[in-house]
UniProtKB/TrEMBL annotation:
PROSITE patterns: GGDEF, PAC, PAS, RESPONSE_REGULATORY. Residues 276-409 form the GGDEF domain. SMART domains: GGDEF, PAC, PAS, REC. Residues 192-244 form the PAC domain. Keywords: Phosphoprotein. Pfam families: GGDEF, PAS_9, Response_reg. The keyword rRNA-binding does not apply. This is Diguanylate cyclase (GGDEF)-like protein/PAS domain S-box-containing protein. The keyword Phosphoprotein applies. Residues 1-110 form the Response regulatory domain. Residues 126-163 form the PAS domain.
Length: 414
């Protein structure tokens, strides 16, 4: 009790803002008070009526690790001082050594050290538990630390990365100019953010969204870099699936009208630029309505799926096949050697259409009418070419079906 009064007297007499105290005599009283109140610092005597030694400190620290602790003891021993700091104390004072100013300074320093330590603990907890990958390097680019999320995404453990260079992650996707621009922006603005492709330890390449920030010291010098990234493979797949749904015919899996429009426009641009021939084939099934009427729409859908697969398999990978709707299909030949080559492809498509179907689909044999528009002779726009191929297809139907016609003002026969 006398020690407490003396210390309070010394602190009241010290310079600076006054300190307010709550004084208790026993450990049990201290724990009761600490359970309902919060303080900036605990000035702890290691010799109490109901507890003694470093076990007292351990008990208080477990109860309120969020409060700075300054230990008071009558024992001036290095091992006790080190033990106190190891068990959570921010400072260690020997009774009777020093005046109020020294004690007050020790308390204030302990509070600041504890607050700084708390911030470090919180930052470390965030570093270790966040789902975002983090890599820290020094000013020379050598890896200093990586967090567990980094290891989960890349497959590299911390010991495999620390001391090395981040370029072990490079996937070879980006040109050197990409990294030159990245570092240029880092030097100019202190940050870079964007999509980048990296390689996991198992060799798989993946996309990530990366942000790099320059870390500077108080004088503005570069102390290092912090890279934060997220694996966006799932997002990329979702985007690709949305794009597939938006550009694919759900029944046949072929390109839909929206994608066909873009593909035909691109084909016209390329054919015009490089002065080469291309062709658009418009195919309409003959008598398909009878399939739906006699066998039902589910059988009709199965036939359309089968026809779509046959058409796709009958042309080159570079050629494009799309379903416009109903039983109308179009084929883009982006590079073809004149009308004869286009007619040969059309003949092959007719043969694929007339091949028998499985008995569980329909017993009837289908045919098709195909109209051909040459690019750029018959048009240089999406509308004009589609109109020309469609008109030629109707000429083929009027000629008796199961036929091919090229577009012309008079719809001349193939």
């Amino acid at each position: 009790m006398a020690d407490g009064r003396l210390i309070q007297y010394l602190l009241d007499d010290a310079d600076g803002a006054p300190l307010t105290f709550t004084h208790v005599r026993t450990l049990s009283q201290a724990l009761t008070v600490l359970a309902r109140e919060s303080y900036d610092v605990i000035l702890l005597d290691l010799t109490l009526p109901d507890s003694e030694g470093l076990v007292t400190l351990e008990t208080v620290h477990r109860a309120r690790a969020d409060i700075a602790i300054v230990v008071l003891t009558g024992i001036d021993a290095t091992d006790v001082a080190i033990g106190a700091v190891q068990r959570g104390a921010q400072d260690y004072l020997v009774k009777g050594r020093g005046d109020g100013q020294l004690i007050k300074r020790s308390i204030l320093y302990a509070v600041e050290r504890h607050r700084a330590n708390q911030r470090l603990l919180l930052a470390e907890a965030a570093f270790r538990n966040i789902d975002t990958g983090i890599m820290v390097t020094d000013a020379a680019g050598k890896v200093v630390r990586v967090n567990p999320a980094f290891s989960r995404v890349t497959g590299y453990d911390g010991h495999e990365m620390v001391g090395g260079q981040p370029n072990v992650l490079h996937a070879g996707v980006h040109e050197p100019a990409f990294y030159d621009e990245l570092w240029h922006q880092l030097r100019e603005t202190g940050a870079w953010e964007g999509e980048i492709w990296n390689r996991r330890k198992d060799g798989k390449v993946y996309p990530e969204w990366l942000r790099i920030n320059v870390v500077t010291d108080e004088s503005g010098g570069i102390a290092g870099y912090v890279a934060i990234f997220s694996d966006i493979t799932f997002r990329r797949r979702a985007e690709q699936e949305l794009l597939r749904q938006a550009t694919t015919d759900p029944l046949t899996g072929l390109a839909n009208r929206q994608l066909f429009t873009r593909l035909l426009t691109s084909t016209v641009e390329q054919a015009t630029r490089y002065q080469r021939d291309a062709a658009l084939l418009f195919l309409d099934l003959d008598g398909f309505k009878a399939v739906n009427d006699t066998a039902g729409h589910s059988t009709g859908d199965a036939v359309l799926r089968e026809i779509g697969g046959r058409l796709r398999g009958a042309v080159r990978i570079s050629d494009e096949v799309a379903r416009l709707g109903g039983d109308e299909f179009v084929v883009i030949l982006p590079e073809v050697r004149g009308r004869e080559a286009a007619a040969a492809v059309a003949e092959k498509l007719l043969q694929e259409t007339t091949r028998p179907f499985a008995e569980d689909l329909t017993g009837m044999r289908l045919t098709a009418s195909i109209g051909i528009a040459m690019i750029p002779d018959d048009g240089v726009s999406y509308e004009s070419l589609l109109h020309a191929a469609d008109a030629a297809m109707y000429q083929a139907k009027r000629a008796g079906k199961n036929a091919i016609r090229f577009f012309s003002g008079h719809a001349a026969a193939c």
